[in-house]
Amino acid sequence: MNERFFVNCTTTTTSSGQAKTSLIYGGNKPVLDISVDPPELTVSNNVYKHCYNSKRGFGSHLIQFGKFSISNTKNSFTVVGCDTHASFTDMDSSFTTGCMLSCTSRTRFEEGACSGVGCCQTNFPDAIMSYSITLTSSRNYTDVHNFNPCGYAFVAKEGSFNFSYRDLLDLSNRTQFPLVLDWAVANQTCHEAQKDPSSYACKQNSICKSSEGGMGYCCVCKEGFRGNPYLSHPDLGCKDINECDVKNRCSRRCHNVEGNYTCSCPPGYRGDGYIDGSGCKFPLMQISLGISLALLVLFTFVFTLCWGHKQRSLKRLRRMYFEQNGGNYMLQQIYRQQGHTDRTKIFSEDELKIATNNFDESRILGRGGQGTVYKGILSDNRHVAIKKSRISGNHRQIKDFINEVAVLSQINHRNVVKLFGCCLETEVPLLVYEFVDNGTLLEHIDPLKNKNSLSWETRLRIAAETAGAISYLHYAASIPIIHRDIKSTNILLDHNHRAKVSDFGASKLVPLDETQITTVVQGTLGYLDPEYLFTGQLNEKSDVYSFGVVLVELITGNKAVEFNRPEERNLAMHFASLMKEDNLRKILDKRVLDVKNAEQLKEVAFLARRCIRVNGEERPTMKEVAMELEGLIAVKKHPWVKGEDMMSEVCEYLLGHVASRYGNAPAGTSAGYNGGYGNASADTLAGYDSIQKQMEFEIADGR
Fold first, then answer.
1. Which residues are catalytically annotated?
2. Cα–Cα distance, 590 to 458 (Å, whole number)
3. Are 267 and 260 in contact (CB under 8 A)?
4. For the domain 441-701, what is the CATH superfamily, name and number?
5. What value does the mean pLDDT take over residues 185-198?
6. 397 vs 322, 326, 368, 393, 637, CA distance in Å?
7. pTM of the model
8. At what angle do helices 598-611 and 456-471 cross, to 10 degrees?
9. Rg, C-alpha atoms of the chain
10. pLDDT digit string (tens) for 322-362?
């Protein structure tokens, strides 16, 4: 068209004899790409550098591209270096931009990204015809010469340069980068160009528009045409494309027309034929749609009937379970409790499913002989423990179960786990208790489970609180209650280590006119009253025996039954044997043994020994046990115990003569000890032999 668009095409022969063609624009700019739409010319642009020298000068370079402008939207000014100042100046509009870089060899460079550390990129606001690059160094690269002897600057197409820290040492292997130029037909507006048809560049089926750089106008093909808008050749200029092949938006039939397309429907169909319009619809489709809608309505109706039937069946089943589990009797009991503000609540199954996330495995707190316990959160944000009992639908047990729930709901003792209510809508009744968050007593005194042992003061307080709670059950409840499963795993601790007696699944209500009841033997190995085991006669002294075993656990730190214990598997028998041999110190928990509490340890040991007597009549009552423990807590420390250097002597005196309480006191021992408890009888020792045999039988039998 004119000299501005001249590109020199040069063919050379390489050393291998192959012909190589090069396109050069503007005398020295290799051409990489020519685009008609958009109107762009991509050429190779040089990298300019400024290196260390003794004169500490600066480098300045002027770059011109003739009549074409450098694209400011597709190029960026890039600077690489660690002691480099580079500026970019428009020679026509006189704006300046640039970068200032400073870094050391210890700097962390971001590989592959020009983030401003060792490499900086900036855009310029306008398309320009020529520019100047100036490079300087503040310290002449003397501090960074070993890894960055030169600074580099260049203008290149965005995305063509990926920074690497190796570029700081030498960028000479990458001397040129692509640069995008915007070109226009002439420095005229479209209105001015169309006035002179002889010089107007846009040919058939094309339109005129302003160039990106604002330096003139350019041509593009009309919508529906493709080709070179500057040529009138029928095959190379803007020619019609078949939209039916490239962008068909017809639902049925497409018809290509010059620069566009149309849609139509086959015979029998209705609509405009366009996908984004009404399309082509056949009445059969409407009929099919109507049938589908009718089937959907029918399915919804049947599903609703089935769902309703299932809900009614579930409701009937829940009602059956409710009546089978004594729900009506429970309602009568609740009605009688109208004067109580915290009376028992009957929960629905849905309430407890929501509270436990449908009884999810992750909510299980523990499994025991009486059932599985889940953690739940009620709608009022109360945390509760929900127990799935193993009680079956035996009608003979229902009344006792309901009586038990009704009585337990009236217990208001701070050391007894509170019963909030129950759910009777399931095959297995569910009990809802308060949630105690600090685990069981066994977890805190077992050295294998908890290295941070409870102090003796805390253990003694827990024993007193537990004894008080059991005494309350025996004597203060409206109907006396025998727990029947007192053990360290059924004594829970809250965050203040306050004792909470739990798990009343095996408990029995004792009528006021009876002192003992006959039941099927039930309990836990190691805690089971031997007299109850042999006779089946359950009374309050059975709980005393079990509590005595807990006392032994508290002062020894051992489990009630330990199959790996070489001396004796049963802790109660082992403890009694050591006391008889004057060897109590051997079994005491060293973590709590101290000169300050030696007297209390001795007294608790004597109390535990009385509680685990084989003959129930020789055991104290729980009221007496609770009073003795409370008395021990109330007794002040002896003022004559001054220092820890006396521990060995005091412990020897207090703990080395235990047998004196059992009739074996040496000469000079106070008679008060003998008079208080008497000698161990032959029947007692024989009783322990029988327990030993019974234990061996139970272990062999798998019980």
1. 485
2. 15
3. no
4. Transferase(Phosphotransferase) domain 1 (1.10.510.10)
5. 88
6. 14, 10, 20, 8, 51
7. 0.49
8. 30
9. 49
10. 777 767 767 766 666 555 545 678 888 889 999 999 889 89
